[in-house]
Design a protein that fits this description.
- By secondary structure, the chain is an all-beta fold.
- It is built from no helices and 11 strands.
- Strands 2, 4, 5, 6, 9, 10 and 11 form a 7-stranded mixed beta sheet that branches. The protein has a 4-stranded antiparallel beta sheet with strand order 1-3-8-7, with no helix packed on it.
- A hairpin with a 4-residue loop joins strand 7 and strand 8.
Length: 115
């Protein structure tokens, strides 16, 4: 069975930092593109950052320059380093693993940024 287990969410003041982790099991991790999504109340779930199986990264414009996605294929873990956090970053953050038409989701972790 596939599991994506997230950690690292919490409450932080504006300008602060958090690092989210997502540990995968049940997949050949290195074959999957890994993504971070977020969803705030009343909003659609949006792609925040992605790292492909080949190591290419891309980011939503709203987080570019502040967030960094990385992966450790040995640890089967993807990270999202979030710096210079803003209140508008407040959302539930979800880990996602994708292999072509296959996709798996983590349980979500709450990130709250206070002003």
């Amino acid at each position: 069975q596939v599991q994506l287990v997230e950690s690292g969410g919490g409450l932080v003041q504006a300008g602060g930092s958090l690092r989210l982790s997502c540990a995968a099991s049940g997949i050949i991790f290195g074959s999957y593109d890994m993504d971070w999504y977020r969803q705030a109340p009343g909003n659609q779930r949006e792609l925040v950052a992605a790292v492909t199986s080949g190591g290419s990264t891309n980011y939503a414009d709203s987080v570019k320059g502040r967030f960094t996605i990385s992966r450790d294929n040995t640890k089967k873990t993807v990270y999202l380093q979030m710096n210079s956090l803003k209140p508008e970053d407040t959302a539930v953050y979800y880990c996602h693993a994708a292999l072509r038409r296959y996709g798996y989701w983590g349980q979500g972790t709450q990130v709250t940024v206070s002003s």
